[in-house]
Amino acid sequence: MSNGEKTYKSGFITIIGRPNVGKSTFLNKVIGQKIAIMSDKAQTTRNKIQGVLTTEEAQMIFIDTPGIHKPKHRLGQFMIKVATNTLNEVDLILFMVNASEGFGRGEEFILEKLQGIQTKVFLVINKIDLVHPDDLITIIDRYKDKFPFSEIVPISALEGNNVDHLLHTIQKYLPEGPQYYPSDQVTDHPERFIIAELIREKVLQLTREEIPHSVAVIIEKIETRENGTVHIMAAIIVERDSQKGIIIGKQGSMLKEIGKRARTDIENLLGSKVFLELWVKVQKDWRNKASLLKEFGYREDEY
Ligand SMILES: Nc1nc2c(ncn2[C@@H]2O[C@H](COP(=O)(O)OP(=O)(O)OP(=O)(O)O)[C@@H](O)[C@H]2O)c(=O)[nH]1
User: Fold this and answer.
1) What is the percent of the chain where pLDDT is above 90?
2) For residue 98, how far is its CA from the centre of ligand 1 (angstroms)?
3) Where is the stretch described as G5 (predicted)?
């Protein structure tokens, strides 16, 4: 464009990294807690959009890359080939690592997957609030030789340090492009997914370390009754009987609390009264049972 006017930029970005490195924290920081629901839009894209950041200069669409984070399970294997396709199709990859943890097999696995990928990769070193600045140099040196990263950006997603700098750097690398989504859209997750995540979040919050992140929530029914109340039936899937006991709690007290807190959030989300029915199901080793993946909503043709 002439007169020095800036052109609009947009692109698809995926954040990869081992569990717990802070991917969700970063996205929440960037996108905020606001969730716009688009219930009438079918989930037809292969990859879930996790959030959209729209500014006057650019639009960044963060998408998930299923299959790259959890190589140990068949769930991962099942989706790994699609992960590779996704990595080649996005405009930028953010490889996030935890500054307070050493380089491990998880990182190595991901770097192997990145070999031969055409897309540019940033190394995002998160949780710098946990390390001494001198150590940061050592961490950077360690990673620098392992992969030709386009940029190395240390941040603290939790405290917000350097997050703006990362966003500016991302913007520099994005191609010229249109604003794909309306400005007020932050995510296109269907309601089902968000509701499941809200329930899962309460399970993890209230049970602290006792229930692993692999706990799944399946929304079995969402129904709007004539009086406008939304009835939701959801199953919390755990792998062990002992975990079921923890989630139910003494005389059902834990499950009741999970339900109460989740209901409040869901009511805020939907803007209507919600009747939430929760139950806990033990499905041993569910992540390794390929036949069950379909039941849990992972369909090969979607990924
Ligand atoms: N000190 C510190 N903690 C952080 C930072 N970012 C994230 N965390 C914490 O690290 C933990 C994991 O963060 P998440 O954002 O859930 O990590 P994730 O990568 O999305 O994890 P998965 O969903 O399991 O893949 C949480 O307890 C966060 O509060 C950071 O910059 N500094």
Assistant:
1) 40
2) 9
3) 155-157
Q: Which of 25, 33, 73, 153 to mutate to test the pocket of ligand 1 (most atoms within 8 A of CB)?
A: 25
Instruction: Report how far residue 124's alpha carbon sits from residue 15's, in angstroms, rounded to the nearest whole number.
Output: 9
Q: Tell which CATH architecture fits domain 191-302.
A: 2-Layer Sandwich (3.30)
Can you read off the two tokens belonging to residue 292? Answer: 């069950």
pLDDT tens figures, 175-221: 998 887 767 656 554 567 778 888 988 998 898 778 877 788 888 88
User: Best mutation site among 100, 158, 162 for ligand 1, i.e. most ligand atoms within 8 A of its Cβ?
Assistant: 158
Tokens matching residue 188: 């296109």
* β-pairing verdict for 216-224 and 230-238: antiparallel
Phi and psi torsions of 221, nearest 5°: -155, 135
Give residue 68's pLDDT band: very low, low, confident or very high (50, 70, 90): low
Ligand 1 centroid–CA 29 distance in Å is: 11
Q: Give the CATH architecture of domain 9-173.
A: 3-Layer(aba) Sandwich (3.40)
Annotated binding site for GTP: 17-24, 64-68, 126-129
15 within 8 A of 27, measured Cβ to Cβ: yes
Ligand 1 centroid to Cα of residue 207, in Å, is: 17
Q: How far is the CA of 79 from the centre of ligand 1 (A)?
A: 24
Domain boundaries, the chain: 9-173, 191-302
Q: What are the tens digits of pLDDT across the range 18-54?
A: 888 988 889 888 886 444 433 333 232 345 667 788 8
In this predicted complex, what is the ipTM? 0.97
Binding-site residues: 17-24, 64-68, 126-129
Tell me the H-state helices in 131-179.
Answer: 133-144, 163-173
